[in-house]
Amino acid sequence: MAERVAGPEIERLIQLLARLPGLGPRSARRAALHLIRKREELFGPLAEAMQVARERILVCSACGNVDTSDPCTICRDPRRDPAALVVVETVADLWALERAGATTARYHVLGGTLSPLDGVGPKDLNIESLVGRVAENAIQEVILAVNATVDGQTTAHYITDSLAHASVKITRLAHGVPVGGELDYLDEGTLAAAMRQRTAF
Questions:
Q1: Whole-model pTM?
Q2: Of 105, 141, 156, 164, which one has the fewest beta carbons inside 10 Å?
Q3: In angstroms, how far apart are the furthest CA atoms of the chain?
Q4: Domains (ranges, CATH) in the chain?
Q5: Which phi and psi (to 5°) does residue 127 adopt?
């Protein structure tokens, strides 16, 4: 059995850091050591930022985004297109689209995907509120920006069926060759999707 090389306080810091996505035990130890080395400039501001976030961060009751206000900044933005709604799996997906500046539409965060094997059904996601938003607002287009996984596509089909009664255009993100991608490095599924969804040149 390996001996403990640090006190319980440092071990606890490492264990908590290791719970973060993308950080295993080794990366958590490196992060903890960096924080300790730079404790004067990092520890205080980090602890303060985390405390403020814990106290002030809310989940937007309209779209499911996280912000310090409800409704969130995006939902309150008058420059957003009120007729279009982009449906994403997670807040991380919403942030990715915002970083890309890909749309001026509003969003709807599902909170995951349907996954019968993991016990995630329609009631566990924000699908009912999506149907309600489409019915109550003048939504003309729902853009399904879910991942091209089995669970993502299952969720997209379920949403399409749920909105079948609504007079709304349902679209999805194109799947295929990424910008700057080389055909030789792409998987067969991506190539097949690109071929099926080819467009005029």
A1: 0.80
A2: 164
A3: 65
A4: 82-172 (3.40.1360.10)
A5: -85, -40
